[in-house]
Predict the 3D structure of the following.
Amino acid sequence: MLEPYASDPIKSRGRLFPEEPSAFRSCFQRDRDRIIHSSAFRRLKHKTQVFIEHEGDYFRTRLTHSIEVAQVARTISNALRFNTELTEAVALAHDLGHTPFGHTGEDALSELMAPHGGFDHNAQALRIVTDLERHYADFDGLNLTWETLEGIAKHNGPVTGELPWALAAYQQRHDLETDTFASAEAQVAAVADDIAYNHHDLHDGLRAKLFSTEDLAELPILSRCFERVDELHPGLDRYRRRHEALRRFFGVLVEDVIEAARQNLAKLAPRSPDDIRNAGFQVIVFSDALHQDLKVIREFLFDRMYRAPSVVEMRREVTGVVKDLFPHFLDHPEMLPRRWREDIENTDGKTELARIVSDYIAGMTDRFALQCHEKITSNPRH
């Protein structure tokens, strides 16, 4: 049983290219399945979050992160009686547009693309699923439903002002109503992203020895989690103790979102999915109290992890990789693979060429970007 303001696949606004419905899968389930089978989704296994791919096999990648986001999102969506298949589709697609080397790669590519319309990973995800995935006989992209595309484009809220060029280009073909909020399901995917990275960045920072268990035990929320673990399991070894505490931290975040959402929904009393879109605020959020505690945790992670000397040095190095690759392919487009050279044959002007080069670099894995850089610089990394 879905709530009346949940997205009903029977009432979907459909696909840009009409297709016969499946006999045994809803339209949102088909979206989810197409995302999972896409080339861009597979490449996420060698794209990293904070640490670079070769630094260790135990750190999160974009793929493991996306799976964690989908799991959290499905739990929340099910508890609130939203459409879990749409929620999962948006969650699995939300990072498809990320470059190699995490946000560092995106920052570098954004700077390089500034004269050509910039670079935005959410808009790039939309570009991937509407154009760059070219496997189907009848269309480019995955031909996802309007609701899934809307969620990819604006799960973090309305996109106003000057739109990223990739999003603006698609808007001319298919209006995603960028000035409103997204569906409840897409909002769940957005908050699940916050839950997943707050949780696993603490895990990864511990594994990288950038801070200690004792440091975590002094943070808001986590201090209570450690106290509870010590009450229930006195003398527990340190690995199990911190795992139990982080597991409880994870649960606190999920439970808080569900309770805060129920309160917001009770006040709003929506009767349709569009009532959520037109509410004027993000309905699926953390409570104010927990949001303030998370700000303290995020500040801790920025100070001790994202700005750690070893991370900053690696960021400097991989920024140089992207900044070498971009002008190289811009000056030598004949070095691009055949498929990309075919796209260039239909372009007119430097901006269109730059956007094709940006698409190519953005799709690289960490490993492949490093290999390409080694070839063009004859400078093997050790």
Observations:
- The chain is about 60% helix and 0% strand.
- The longest helix spans residues 238-268.
- The mean pLDDT is 94.
